[in-house]
Automatic annotation (TrEMBL):
The keyword Cytoplasm does not apply. The chain crosses the membrane at residues 49-70, 142-166. The lineage of its organism: Eukaryota, Viridiplantae, Streptophyta, Embryophyta, Marchantiophyta. This is Phosphate transporter. The keyword Transmembrane applies. It is found in: Membrane. It is a multi-pass membrane protein. GO terms for cellular component: membrane.
Amino acid sequence: MELERQEDRPQDIWDSLPVELMIKVLRDHDLPVFTLAECRSVFTPASPYSLGVFSAICVIFAHGAGLATYGYNVTRPMGVKLAKLTPTRGFAAELATTFVIMIASQFGLPTSSSQCITGAIIGVGILEGSKKVNWTQFLKQFASWVTTLFVIGLAVAAVFAQGIYIPSKIQGKEVTMCKDRVTNLTTKVYKDFNSSLQSYRPVAAQGLLVNLPNTT
């Protein structure tokens, strides 16, 4: 197709040029950026270097474990089955996703990066025509998004209900302790009340108790 022939030139430029974001060079040579980077701890306390390294290791391990186990089940449908992707198309989709998330964040709108990148890939693929997009795969992903909301909601509710509505061993012990305390308190009050009445009985029989004045 015409689009396929036109894509050879930007693809060749992409492969021949080192397309990179030189963040460190920008930080060192741009004075406002350098000043902002150096003064970042004024408003937010800087984290220790060891903590950053530990966090990076955890993230790398988590990503590696995910890709080594079931990550391919996500990357394969997104990168192969949904639409044709090349480095330039992938860059365009990622860039569009970044813009959408940044703009939504400015307005406080919750967005999902997975949904954004899916729409971006469909947008890139639909430039060649609607038939170049695997709509069956998209419907499967859309159905999985909707199903996930209900499945996760019901699963969390079921787990939460285990600790709220089902009696546990600890709860049973607390109920037993409460009953014992109430019983002991009631017994003590009953004994004190009887002993008080018994002490006033002889005096009452002799008529020595002072009658309270009538307040009416």
